[in-house]
Structure formats: C-alpha cells, structure tokens
What we know:
Low-confidence stretches: 4-11, 96-106
Oligomer: single chain
Distance between the termini: 57 Å
Amino acid sequence: xxxxxxxxxxxxxxxxxxxxxxxxxxTYLYHYALYLTQNKEAAEDLVQDTALNAVSNxxxxxxxxxxxxxxxxxxxxxxxxxxxxxxxxxxxxxEADSLQVASTDSGPGxxxxxxxxxxxIKNLPLKxxxxxxxxxxxxxxxxxxxxxxxxxxxxxxxxxxIRKKLNHQLRELRD
Length: 175
C-alpha cells in the first residue's frame, strides 16, 4: 500500500506527521475498510481515497482531535457517499425495471427507452415532476417531504400516484 509523501507544511499538521500517523494506523484502516467493503481491492482503494482526502483536508485537522478517529470518520463518509451513489444507480435501474421499459441489453434501444421514460416524466405536473426528480436522485422520502414542504404521508401518496401515472403512460406507448 502506498502512502503519499508530499512536502507541505501547515499550521496544524505537516505531511511528515500525516505519514507518521498513517504508518501507525494503516493496518487498522485497511481492516476497517475491509469490514465496510467486504472486498480486498475495494478496501485498498478506500484506504487510498482516505489518505488522499486526509491530505487534501489536513488544514481541517485540529491537534486536539484523535487522528485515528478523524481518518476513520473520513473513511466512513467516503464509503457511505460511494454506497449512496451506487444505490441511486441501482434505484434508477430498478425503477426502470418496475416500469418494464428498460431493455436488458446495452444496445441502442436502451437509449430510446430512457428517452421514453424521460418524456413520460416531463408530462407529469410540475409538483409531481419535482418529487420524481428528487426520488431519482436518491433523496429519501423524509428529505423530499422537507424539500417540498409536504407531510411525509403526502409524499408517499404522490410517489404512488407518480408510479401509477408513469406505468399508465408507458403502457399506452407500448400498445
């Protein structure tokens, strides 16, 4: 595993100190990354991303902070952010599968299916279109309720109606 060595000095932490501290906790970080990812290659990548992030944010480190806890938090945040990005991609695919429009091959027909879905979304009323876009980007129902200034039950109801309308519109296009 390669730890970056740069000669940058800051008020709170020097690169020399970062390298020394990383040397002490690299094994711990690797095992924590392995616990999170359940994959050796992904764990190594996560440790490297953590090192990069720690170096680029070294000015935010305060000497009273525990370095191991600080880097562990960085690692966890990187992992969670990556997980959410992957979950959004899966959600879009699952949503397309539930609409039974997305093709299983990655040929030219897939782009047409995505265009059809996008056109169906564009035909929704503005409020429902906004909710749909928030849902597709991975927002949780609670976050959508706060963003749209609506009760949670209303958001769930709107999402049900959106799915129903989209299914109906897409069935009409298929027939």
